[in-house]
Amino acid sequence: MIACGVNRINEKQINTHLNDNLGKADADFVRGHTGFVIGGVPPLGHVESIITLIDEDLLQFREIWAAAGHPRAVFQLIPEELVQMTKGRVICVK
């Protein structure tokens, strides 16, 4: 899930897109499925294929910033690049 920083994610809304119940992942789960630590998970380059849901509100910005593999590293891109590189599904998360 990649969301606009001001939005609160509506878990019920996300559950309908996933046909599953959203749960909170612990640090071991995140690292095991992505290869990265919480706080630094980038939108691509994961050790396993994951479903990427992208907040539609991100598309209003000219540029956005994403985690780059470490809690203190980010990179700049445009929303369309994010959608293309992750093959993400743009949805309403609110």
Describe the structure.
- About 25% of the residues lie in helices and about 15% in strands.
- The protein has a single domain, classed as YbaK/aminoacyl-tRNA synthetase-associated domain (YbaK protein, Alpha-Beta Complex).
- It has helices at about 10-20, 25-35, 80-85, and strands spanning about 55, 65, 75, 90.
- The chain has a two-stranded parallel ribbon. The chain has a two-stranded antiparallel ribbon with strand order 2-3.
- The relative contact order is 0.26.
- The mean pLDDT is about 95.
- The protein is of the alpha+beta class.
- The protein is globular.
- This is YbaK/aminoacyl-tRNA synthetase-associated domain-containing protein.
- GO terms for molecular function: aminoacyl-tRNA deacylase activity.
- Pfam families: tRNA_edit (PF04073).
- InterPro entries: YbaK/aa-tRNA-synt-asso_dom_sf, YbaK/aa-tRNA-synth-assoc-dom.
